[in-house]
Amino acid sequence: MGDLGRFFDDIKSLRSHAATAAAEDDFVVVEDASTWSGLFDEHFFRAEDGDDMLFYVKQGSTDLHVVRKTAKTEPETGSNINWEESVYLNLFLQKFKYTLTMVVCVRNETHTKVLQRIDHVVFCSPSRRTMEDKGAAEVPTFPDLYFPIDTFDNLYAAIEVPPDAMLRVELVAAAGPVCASVFSGQVPHSALAAAYARANTGLARASPAQEFLKLTGPNNVGRAQIAVGYLSSPTATGIRGLFSSLSRALGPSSDTPLHACMTYASLSLSQLVAAVFESPRSPILKAAIVRTPSRAASVPPSPALTKSPTRTLAPATISSPLAASAPAPIAASFSSSEGPPSSARQ
Fold first, then answer.
1. What is the mean pLDDT of the chain?
2. Ramachandran area for residue 126 (φ above 0: left; ψ -120 to 50: alpha; else beta)
């Protein structure tokens, strides 16, 4: 942890110097690229551990230059490489470990009761593939970084969201002295059912087993995708089987349990930098789980630091990939008293 702790201190020092200079001068501060390239050289290019693949961010471009460390060759130095962003990108790809927590819970004015919880280790990537059809082709997404759950259908097979419950998610990044919640939000059953229904409005077909819904995080920070559908037994017969068939054809109602799977979370590089270095928040779901019972076992350049005495998360937004209109806001409260809000930096 010593080298990693010193690495973080060096980054914070460079960021603090740039922020202080920007506040004191009327001129635009241009950080010496050699300081960032020196960090890259020490902690990635010449480091004995870490990934063999090194990613270089091209200046003024979303293109990445990828080099194998074993080749012992770096791209030409100079203005064509954004060394600061290259440091951040390789830091998040190599040094951090990420845990995505999904919780089904019911809340009242005094406490939260957890019904189900799944913690899953995810990996950061500057590319993605479609989750609807488990596509094999990787599409570059930088500066957006993705945290996919490739086995979402098996991982969340037992997840059930009852009518009075809500779905809460949190992505936690941890490395050395840092453990921060970088993405979190919650969606009530009613909003999921309504979004599912909107996705199928006017379609001349029965509702599909799953509908892939896109979710925008609080304060427009981060995005996620959730596959929503009915929980039904393949062996259901008689009245129960008939009810399941009718329910699937009519679509979810406000009193029908839903099956929900999270397929990915995504943040831009600047949002991830802000969540880790500008306004880090302590994980909130971990604390909530410790003090509440569980019903079922689960499968395994830079502004100053700002804080608020309470956390108030703005309503998230769900949109359907089939909807032509702008996403409709969810009429739900995203308030919590645990921790300060994240920065809304884009």
1. 74
2. alpha
For the entire predicted model, the pTM comes to: 0.76
Nearest by Cα to 186 from 165, 213, 155, 159: 165
In the chain, how many H helices and how many E strands?
8, 16
Please give the pLDDT value at position 97.
Answer: 96
Q: Which residue has the tokens 């870490």?
A: 50
Give the three-class secondary structure for 101.
Answer: strand
Question: Which residues have CB under 8 Å from 294's CB, separation 6+?
Answer: 114, 115, 116, 117
Whether 300 has a pLDDT exceeding 60, the answer reads: no
**Which of 115, 117, 109, 254 is CA-nearest to residue 189?**
254
To which H or E segment does residue 43 belong? none
For residues 148 and 263, the answer to whether their CB atoms sit within 8 Å is: yes
pLDDT at 296 over 90: no
**Residue of 244, 246, 250 lying closest to 232 (CA atoms):** 244
**pLDDT one-digit tens code per residue, 158-183:** 999 999 999 999 999 999 899 999 99
* Separation between Cα atoms, residue 241 and residue 239, nearest integer Å: 5
Sign of CA dihedral 82, 89, 5, 19: positive
Q: Please state, in angstroms and rounded to a whole number, the distance separating the CA atoms of residues 276 and 216.
A: 19
Question: CA–CA separation, 59 vs 31, rounded Å?
Answer: 14
The residues near 283 (Cβ < 8 Å, ≥ 6 apart) are 101, 170, 172, 179, 180, 181
pLDDT at 304: 30
- What lies within 8 Å, CB to CB, of 234 at 6+ separation is none
From 80, 76, 18, 74, select the one nearest 44 (Cα to Cα): 74
* One-character DSSP codes across 111-158: -EEEEEEEEEEE--BSEE--TTTT----EE-TTEEEEE-TTHHHHTTT
* pLDDT tens track for 100-141: 999 999 988 888 899 999 999 999 999 998 887 776 788 999
Task: Match 């990693």 to its residue by tokens.
Answer: 4
